[in-house]
Design a protein that fits this description.
The chain has a single domain, classed as 3-Layer(aba) Sandwich (Trna Endonuclease, Chain: A, domain 1), CATH 3.40.1350. The chain is 30% helix and 40% strand. It has two helices and five strands; from the N terminus they run αβββαββ. Strands 1-2-3-4-5 form a five-stranded mixed sheet. The protein is globular.
Length: 122
């Protein structure tokens, strides 16, 4: 597996650890429905949180936030809708983004709570 794929998987693990330390309950990881995927589904209090994780070892070419395009947001909303329907959940939801740069040994984690709402960009 390529280094960037390894770092992406390690980034998701770092994000899960980070969320747990903040008191989030992790419900699912890499949840899929067809071609739709949600990196992390968590609960914080009464709110269901859909989390997209982007990890980069540097910002030389682009910041990880730049990978969250309108098309990506649209796919996340569709995936979240599928998750809610599949699990018959009626809950308050939000979309967060966690970016990780650096190395697994020295990660820089940035958490964007309420990063976007359906129809509204970051």
């Amino acid at each position: 597996m390529a280094y960037h794929n390894d770092f992406g998987l390690q980034g998701e693990e770092l994000a899960v650890e980070y969320l747990r330390r903040k008191g989030y309950l992790i419900l699912n990881r890499n949840w899929r429905s067809g071609h739709k995927e949600i990196d992390i589904v968590a609960r914080q209090g009464d709110e269901l949180v859909f989390v997209e994780v982007k990890a980069r070892n540097n910002n030389f070419y682009a910041r990880p936030e730049d990978a969250i395009t309108r098309q990506k947001m649209h796919r996340l909303v569709l995936a979240a809708d599928a998750y809610l329907r599949c699990n018959m959940i009626d809950s308050s939801v939000r979309f967060d983004v966690i970016t990780i740069t650096g190395t697994p040994d020295k990660p820089y984690i940035k958490h964007y709570e309420h990063a976007f709402r359906p129809g509204i960009g970051i």
